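Why this split exists: single-chain examples teach little about how molecules sit against one another. For that reason, every record in the complexes split bundles all components of an assembly together and asks for one structure covering all of them. Below is a record exactly as it appears in the raw files.
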Amino acid sequence: MNHIQLKNISKIYNANSTQAQSAMALLAEGMDSVAVKEQTGYSVGLYDINLNIKAGELHCIMGLSGSGKSTLIRHLNRLIDPTSGEIWVNTTVNTKTHAKDNTQANTAPVDESSSNAINILELNDKQLQHYRQQTVSMVFQHFGLVPHMTVMQNVAYGLRVRKMSVSERHEIARYWLNEVGLTNLEHSYPDELSGGMQQRVGLARALATDNPILLMDEAFSALDPLIRAQLQDQLLELQERLNKTIVFITHDIDEAIKVGQRISILNGGRLIQTGTPNDLRHNPADDYVEQFMRAKA
Ligand SMILES: Nc1ncnc2c1ncn2[C@@H]1O[C@H](COP(=O)(O)OP(=O)(O)OP(=O)(O)O)[C@@H](O)[C@H]1O
Ligand SMILES: [Mg+2]
């Protein structure tokens, strides 16, 4: 059951539509993004991405620097709009967890022919605001906490904009701080916390909105290896219960193998392969994938 579907998504940066078409014509002939940049001057973010992300899966997007990972994930909350293509999201997938009752999770039928799926590129400003408040949350690489707000205020922020009462949002924030292993720190400020603790706050803030889709762009990459491993474990433990649809960006194949149920490999803006770690290990689509998976038992 798909939650998110990208259809023929291409992104050519800093080009008008005629210029983008000329770059895409070269890409269609098989030219790689470096050569396209050399010949046309335009940067290829993504080319012709078709990707289905299932409801409730932890899906890793992996690739070297510049392969298009951030470009891809930023399309999902429309921080970036594509040059062409469609993005369908089922807005009725239910992974609500505050009631600690997961029985209704992921029960909706999903594909774009269902009336429940929307092409998010067609949302107007108000609908987009609603989509960002109710459907997608993001955890950032450098935590993105508001420095003059306490831990509690940071976590409760997404609920404040929903006009929830102070007592209710503080109760929810406290619940999620506890879930990520941060108790008794609610009155601290971000700069009083270690990096690992700050990212736990970032995670609690994203989870507190209870949105079904969690976007994580290199969320653990800034952390020391030991702390990073702890956060990975914590995420996996939470996900066992939460059943969110998580899109997790990493350039670290070990991290992708550890946390990802499926992994999509990007290279030069193209999607090379999507599969389970075992699929990639046993049937790599090309040398690039094979090199990543080599020696990964
Ligand atoms: N705002 C922008 N303007 C022009 N080109 C851009 C812009 N953002 C990204 N690009 C280009 O698009 C390509 C993909 O970049 P992207 O940031 O998505 O890669 P990434 O896989 O996230 O890399 P990293 O691992 O370094 O974060 C790169 O060639 C990059 O230079
Ligand atoms: Mg990036």
